[in-house]
Amino acid sequence: MIAAITGVGWVSTETMGSGRRHQVLQSKDGELPKIVSRMVFGEVSPRFGRLDEYSKLGLAAIAFALKDAKQDQLNEKRTAGIIVSSIYGCLATDMEYFEQVIANGGNLASPNLFALTLPNIFLGEAAIRFGLTGPGFAVNGAEPGGTEGLKLALESMFLDENPMMIVGTSDPGCPPLFPYHVEMAAGALFFVLEKHPPDASLSYGGLDMTLRGDVLFNGVEIQSLASLFQGCLPHLIR
Amino acid sequence: MESGRTEIAKIWIVDANVVTALGKDLTDTWEGVVNGVSAIREISRFPVEGYYARMAACIEGLATSQDRSMIAALVEQLFANMQPVPPDTALITATTKMGIDNLEKLKRGQPARVPDILLSSLPELISQKLGLRTTGINISASCASSTIAIARGAGLIASGRADAVLICCADVVTEFTFSGFSALKVVSASPCRPFDRARSGLTLGDGAAALVLMSEERALREARDCVAVVRGWGASNDAFHITSPDPDGSGLVSAIEQALSRSALNESDISAVSAHGTGTLYNDLMELTAFRRVFGGRRIPIYSAKGNIGHTTGAAGGIEVALAAKALAERTVPPTAGFKDPEQGAEGCVSASVVSLTGDVCLTTNSGFGGINAAIVLERGPA
Q1: Which CATH number describes the domain made up of B230-380?
Q2: CATH at A155
Q3: CA distance B294 to B271
Q4: Exposure pattern of B335-350 as b/e (b: 16+ CB <10 Å)?
Q5: Nearest to B182 among A107, A141, A157 (CB)
Q6: Range of the structural domain that residue A88 is part of
Q7: Which is it for strands A164-171 and A187-194: parallel, antiparallel or unpaired?
Q8: B-chain residues near A210 (CB < 8 A)
Q9: Rounded to a whole number, what is the distance in Å from the CA of A154 to chain B's nearest CA?
Q10: What digits encode the pLDDT tens for the residues B86-128?
Q11: Mean pLDDT value across chain B
């Protein structure tokens, strides 16, 4: 086994929270919830409020996953990396930013909004909040299911680069008025992977990977992050 | 897969090319860099009258098609001078904004191929062009995107999941990116001057790079040349600030230490450093601090190519690794264009002149927004 899954966190159109504590949402027309910092951190956070929807979505799921793994308390910085897979990523923010450039001229563009037009920026926000000093990056690929990021995370742990990785997907969906739709479910889902979990009772199961790149959860091949979620929390799947 | 570091394959770079504002291939770009030529000019690609800074290192004639992104033309140039890539090669690309020029066109009501806007379209474009069996993935990690891509490509080979990986990175100067960096007040009104006391910010540039990594075993089997050997890699996050580096350089030090540990080399084995060297106040200070922490009082040659080709954002790491491989092969540390008056800590390390490279190992580093840092240890290939 390369790693144990010790935390699961997500935000979907129907539920949000973590494997051990989540809530059912009163979804309006299948939309994702408008996330505010109190829902995630139990307190008001101006920094969180300044983020775009893509970043809030991903950061919330990461926070829920770390809480599930009892790794959300920042006592000291630790080596843990984050990988997010996404299709549209921060595209809605890109569009909003460039509309401002056209309307107001580039010299009046918002530096804060521009900083959010990089899909890995919210991983830096997560790193600051939770003291995570491993690398954070975004992965975009044609392969469905979001497993490419998971494979990179497992490889990094296999090579002894990072003892802990947080890996998942965050996608607010196709921005309004963007004329190119990819079939996908909007939402965010993250897993905490630990090589040597301090509390074995927190493990949902073990992950391994073959040389061909097949990912195995408790010895069974999984094809997507959604099927990994199902493997971890079968009682939540209707 | 059994965890650990034993029996890890040696990783060769068997082919490399770059396209920059200095030239259509690695040779042209290297010649320009080593001769201290700067490709930084006033921008004509989009109106710059409203901006306080107006310079970038743009490749002329990139906008060849009305609806395709400039990245497509850049990729065409990149592979024009490379050996065929084996179809079973894995593919990792790196870009921060891919075809963001097409989002600009879309928003202005001009013809634009919309899929070019998505970051995943870069690996799709290259896979289709080269006839690869994989669709590949793209990695986006700000200005360390391609350095991370090289690290993950090396990881793929080291873990045994692949024996050949193509790394391809590309980014272009657009009004989108130029306005953003201008709004952040990090663009220099004059050509950037890395590690100079009078530096006033970065200069953006167009660029792309392609590097074919192979396990030594496969490279020998296929009688491939060795451009350089990837000995080690490391990556970290500052966990400090979203757009500013940690001034104590801890994150970069960590990435370098990981790369050295992976390579089983010591800091004393490093003969030169290809720094990120953007020319911004805080980046360059942070890097000098980090290098001082790693190398102590040793006056190691440090250079930056950004005064020549500008800051090519997501492509910077790939281009700089290709140039560092060339530096090792030519036993030459290139000068740092724009450098005159050393920032404290740069004395005796950064130079405006060519310096002989006396050893066999070079370190390249990049850092970026979101707190990311990455480092690669390169060794001269066997003769």
Answers
A1: 3.40.47.10
A2: 3.40.47.10
A3: 13
A4: bbbbbeebbebbeebb
A5: A107
A6: 3-236
A7: antiparallel
A8: 1
A9: 10
A10: 999 999 999 999 999 999 999 999 999 999 999 999 999 999 9
A11: 96
